[in-house]
Design brief:
The complex is a heterodimer of chains A (about 110) and B (about 120). Chain A has about 110 residues and is mainly β. Helix content of chain A is about 0%, strand content about 45%. Chain A is built from no helices and 11 strands. In chain A, the strands form 3 sheets. In chain A, strands 2, 5, 6, 9, 10 and 11 form a 6-stranded mixed β-sheet that branches. In chain A, strands 3-8-7 form a 3-stranded antiparallel β-sheet, with no helix packed on it. Chain B is about 5% helix and about 50% strand. In chain B, a hairpin with a 2-residue loop joins β7 and β8. Chain B has about 120 residues and is mostly beta strands. The chains are: A mainly beta (about 110), B mainly beta (about 120).
């Protein structure tokens, strides 16, 4: 079965703390994974794609096929990072996880 | 390009009324997706089209929901009759070649701003 699991509904940290948003997937083929972000009352927008191996707004995500994970990390969280984060697996359609709300307190 | 356009941005209606949500995808995109977002269920794919043809409508909750794509630049999601439990934010997204070969390779979906539906 094709599935994306984000085990944490809410993650709260203080500014400057490290952040890791967890994502695990289930897929029989070679996965194509994304992280989308949704700031308050705004549209979803692409944050990261695993193929590009880039760092956006200080966030990185590494695909670990052995652990079937694609965790999102940032070493020092900022208040403006507060948002909803969705991990997504691409097949012919995107399969989204249930999302993790990140709250960064001052 | 203005991106994916949705209208209306907000809709408040009474139970039993018909609701029509509209989406204009990015020009040249050949895939269009409709999603529903609620606090309880998160982001759910309702239906998606490829070249104006519905490919997978397994996420459509029930017969009260219907979606059409009469041409490549327009799609509608209709709820008739509407119920309070339909209250949600409905997003439209598109993807395709128009965004450039590199982005096609990444299969990125571009989302609209959403329609916030409230059924009283």
């Amino acid at each position: 079965a094709q599935r994306v699991t984000q085990p944490e509904k809410l993650l709260s940290v203080f500014k400057g703390a490290p952040v890791e948003l967890k994502c695990n997937y289930s897929y029989s083929g070679s996965p194509e994974l994304f992280w989308y972000v949704q700031y308050s009352r705004q549209r979803l927008q692409l944050l990261l794609r695993h193929i590009s191996r880039e760092s956006i707004k200080g966030f990185t995500a590494d695909l670990n096929k052995g652990e079937t994970s694609f965790h999102l990390k940032k070493p020092f969280a900022q208040e403006e990072d507060s948002a909803m984060y969705y991990c997504a697996l691409n097949t012919d359609k995107l399969i989204f996880g249930t999302g993790t709300r990140l709250q960064v307190f001052p | 390009d203005a991106g994916v356009i949705q209208s209306p941005r907000h809709e408040v209606t009474e139970m039993g009324q018909e609701v029509t949500l509209r989406c204009k995808p990015i020009s040249g995109h050949d895939y269009l997706f409709w999603y529903r977002q609620t606090m309880m269920r998160g982001l759910e794919l309702l239906i998606y089209f490829n070249n104006n043809v519905p490919i997978d409508d397994s996420g459509m909750p029930e017969d009260r929901f219907s979606a059409k794509m009469p041409n490549a630049s327009f799609s509608t999601l209709k709820i008739q009759p509407s119920e309070p439990r339909d209250s949600a934010v409905y997003f439209c997204a598109s993807k395709g070649l128009a965004s450039g070969a590199s982005q096609r390779k990444w299969n990125e979906q571009f989302f609209g701003p959403g329609t916030r539906l409230t059924v009283l």
